[in-house]
Amino acid sequence: MDRFRKSRKVYLSAGDCGKIMLWQVKKILHCHFPELSARLSALSDPRIGPQYTIEELVMASIVLFLLKCDSRNDFNHKCKDDQFRSNYRRMFRLKLPQMDAVNDLFEKMETSQMEELRCCFINSLIEKRVFHRLRFFDKFFYFAIDGTGVYHWSDTPVESILHHALRKESKTGKVSYSNQIVEAALVCSNGMTIPLMTEWVANNGADCQTQDCELNAFKRLCGRLKKSFPRLKVCILVDGLYTNVSMMEICKQSDWGYVTVFKDGNLSSVWEEVNSLLPIKDASESCRQQVGDSTHWITRNYRWIKDLEYQKHKFNWMECVQERLHRETKEKSETRFVFLTNLDVNRLNIADILMAARARWQIEDHFNTQKNRGGSLHHKYNRNDFKAMKNWHSVRQLACMMTEFVKYTLELQQLKKDNAKMTWKELWKRLNSFLIMCIVDEAIDEFETWSLQPRQVRLE
């Protein structure tokens, strides 16, 4: 960062910010994804007599999402700019294709290739121990799993989409179709959310008798996760929808830990046992934690009951009632969290386990970011082919993984702290402006000189 400014009090122009963003993107690709070019080139190309290499097409789609373009058309407009094309070639040493060519490739390419590509990068990063210091308790890799809707069709979609879309009929008889996913993401103790794997909630062809559902997609996703990360010490974080025997059985067979939201009404017999045990003096344990931040005094009251049993599965019940008192106004608020877990719970680790359990919100924030902060999750990059739709989503998640690393570099986190009103959206805008209005040759020459020596990227 010092190469761009001498002190934290120096005002950074839009060009300076754009240059810093360019450096961080290049640093992440160089240090954490050095095999990107080789892996893209190794993808099987289903086309005959292609004008562009498969590396050029897939790399262009990744850059589309890195630059937060809202659509294929948006990126095509950038491609018409001579300066952008020149800078793109200087940055990646690749030709810049139109997005229609990329879409044609994705309609032909098998979806398993792009899905396996993401897993290969994750396994490589795990082997390099990139995530080890970001684990909770320096022990578990926490996988948050949740579902969300991605596409909604107000009209009847084309036949190739219709055979896989979920059908819903309203009380008035109106029929609508949608596409949904169940996503697994690695949540890190510093706030990073790394998308791992996607399972589509999708019907299997025109002759499908029953519709797919989120719980079935969850089971398929867990099987794929175990196959891709067989030796990883995993703990999954899920919401109340998955609080059932199937989830417990999957975790038992996979040797996984789990922490699941336990809502009122879930597993009624377990709630009856909990409510009967809480008044008994030695049946439950409790402790209190008092902390504070700049505006509030915070008191957390913990209670837990160990060794509950439900259909031959043993687990522990945990509750946290958090009370917040405003330092100045004295306004009070109270929030209650309840979870079930198969992890060992005691007075020393209850606060840490519940802190990790509440990190499940990171995958919800991940969905919100992709829907409302530049990921264009609801935008249909292909409206005619389900295979292409899945490939576009896989590329989006791969680019999102890279974006997370860029955001959490020490330099950008410090830049955000020094400029409190600077938003991530504004920083990505300045990178786009820099690539369109400036010449990157000097910055790239400087970066290539820097990269000649072995380097590491520091994450906050």
Kindly provide the radius of gyration, computed on alpha-carbon positions and rounded to a whole number of angstroms. Answer: 24 Å
Query: How big a fraction of the residues is strand?
Result: 15-25%
Oligomer: single chain
Q: What's the number of structural domains?
A: 3
How confident overall, as mean pLDDT? 90
- Along the chain, the helix and strand elements come as HHHHHHHEHEEEHEHEHEEEEHHHHHH
Helical fraction: 40-55%
Q: What is the count of DSSP helices, taking H or I runs of 4+ residues?
A: 17
Q: How many DSSP E strands?
A: 10
Question: What overall form do the CA principal axes indicate?
Answer: globular
Low-confidence stretches: 1-9
SS-based structural class? alpha+beta
Distance between the termini: 14 Å
Specify the biggest β-sheet: 10 strands, mixed
Outline the structure in words.
The protein has helices at 14-31, 36-41, 54-66, 72-79, 82-92, 99-108, 111-127, 159-162, 214-228, 245-254, 268-277, 350-358, 361-372, 386-407, 410-418, 424-437, 441-450, and strands spanning 141-153, 166-169, 175-187, 193-201, 234-238, 257-261, 285-292, 296-310, 313-326, 332-341. By secondary structure, it is of the alpha+beta class. The protein folds into three domains: 14-114 and 387-450, no CATH class; 131-239 and 360-380, no CATH class; 261-345, no CATH class.
